[in-house]
Amino acid sequence: xxxxxxxxxxxxYICGHxxxxxxxxxxxxxxxxERHKTIDETEERRICLYDMNVFQNDRAYAAHMLNEHxxxxxxxxxxxxxxxxxxxxxDGAVRTYDxxxxxxxxxxxxxxxxxxxxxxxxxxxxxxxxxxxxxLSAEVTLQKExxxxxxxxxxxxxxxxxxxxxxxxxxxxxxxDCVDQILSTVHQYASHGSGWRIRRIDKIVLKMVKSAPIxxxxxxxxxxxxxxxxxxxLNIRNYEDDRCFEYCFVAEYHRQNNIPLTLRTMQSKEExxxxxxxxxRNSRAHEPTGDFVYPMGLPAIARFEILNEVQVNVFRYNExxxxxxxxxxxxxxxxxxxxxxxxxxxHHYVVIKDLNKLVSKMQKRKLRSRNMLCRNCFHxxxxxxxxxxxxxxxxxxxxxxxTMPNADKSSVGFKNIGARSYSPFAVYFDLESVLxxxxxxxxxxxxxxxxxxxxxxxxxxxxxxxxxxxxKPAFFSLHRGVDAMTKFVRMLEVLARDFHNKKRRxxxxxGSTTILEDSDKCWxxxxxxxxxxxxxxxxxxxxxxxxxxAHNKCNFLRRTIQFTPVFAHNLQNYDLHHVLKSxxxxxxxxxxxxxxxxxxxxxxxxxxxWIRSYTNEKGNVYNVYEEIRFVDSCKFMNSSLDxxxxxxxxxxxxxxxxxxxxxxxxxxxxxxxxxxxxYSYVDSHARYTEDGLPARDKWTNTLQGGVVSVSEKECQxxxxxxxxxx
Length: 726
Prior knowledge:
By secondary structure, the protein is of the alpha+beta class. 24% of the residues lie in helices and 26% in strands.
């Protein structure tokens, strides 16, 4: 009861004794157990888990929860379980336990802490004989007050990931990780001003599912392909029981420790007898520690390793290939490698005496100096030091083997024919703002807060339209003024209507096919024509030009892109915020949709500009739209514009060179470089009317503490850019 949340809508936790904070509930709880082992006489009283206040009676506690945290009061004395009888399904393979408070419960964290013992007891009861999978969830009812005074009520289900548990039960880490997942799901609803709050917690649900892990059981003979490699294997014949795993462990224990099992030397056939390794029939045989259910499943091996201080790795044989199945992370000098055979659902463990040599023979490689083998991927290293460096990364991944493709499958071809389509138009824009100073009072430095010092107001924009096949900009606009954003969105509407008309100028090819050059290959996929895939003519719908001969299927897949992309660098973090605020100035018939990243950022904005309406024969009215989509170029060019411009060759500045064709080359060089601007100085539109650039001491940056951000050379560069654009 000494852990509580700092805020009901956040995911940070705090120790109620020493105020240690952490985002992990498990870490804070372990801290409380280790550092504050005892709880004083207030343990029997009511404690608020949110601020650790202690109350002498339930009435005072309920009033505090309602007034301070907005959580309704309830009758604490009746908070008992109503049902822990399971509901079964699939012949008992799935068992569901409902933990239901009698009265309204709203403190989810406190409920989990209170019911932890019951949850762990139920898990232990189900995993006593075999490992299972467990999932914890909560059914919570939320309520929100509407604008008309009525209340809206919904029920949500917050789940954690299903975890595998064995006879050891649910560990402390697993329990608190699950609680963290459930609390995070609930808090997503009741955060960021959504208005939702917890009305009651209906129940906690524990679901237990019987798993069917792979188990080694009775004897299976070696496959024919492995008979020639049997000198590296030990296949113990256990016909009468399913304890092949135990016999393999005992055999390796005696072999690696040079402890004989008999008074005389064993013959090869005698080594394969199960009776030699059964401590119940051979007093010299080593007895494993711990009681286990046989046949041994893979999930139970982890507990066997801890009790017997052994590392057990399991491999499987499939299509003449040895593959890692279970590679242990338990560190010890005693390592046992096992091969798991499979025949029609029956499994059997076989001892691998020398994994290094077995893999070398199967891969038909010589050992030489690269004899250090990684069990997780079968990569070979020349020294133990290199193997340890390799395993630091490799052991963090699932067991896998890198296999090279066959000669007939060694090449990868382009298959996404639809990606060959291009947009006939693309729009590029950039916004600039004036930074208006905000008069405010200074916040308390002892409290966490945000101080607003400047307000960004868009003051200008530059917009360029690029048309496919045209080396010059199809449209260019540069505007500065108070109405910059209104003019920007209305200009996009005009451009969208123009795009709509131009895209549908040539639905059919109007030229003569007799003068066209014939081809034996499709111009899209570059493969030859066949009788099953006819040859058709492919043309440009925007200018009517002939593109080439194509397969009928390729021509169908190369569809025209129906939207026009509008690009801006760093759109998601800056420009899109100004665009969204200006959409109200567009036609009311336009429609908009966004792809949100979170409550404050959006990945993309789609604007459908209304073109016209028409009525069909049945009298139904339909609207025609032209779609433009805002895209952040940082998503596929994650570098600054300065770096991108420096990496681009001069001859690739096609549109810039054509637009400023009459300018001298030294002016173009200035424009291609990074520009400098006194952002903090330009705090109103009146700054644009001043003659000349401000003095160097005015080129400050508020976010950098008022330090002069440019050199004298950079000021001259900015002055040169202004004259270059005049």
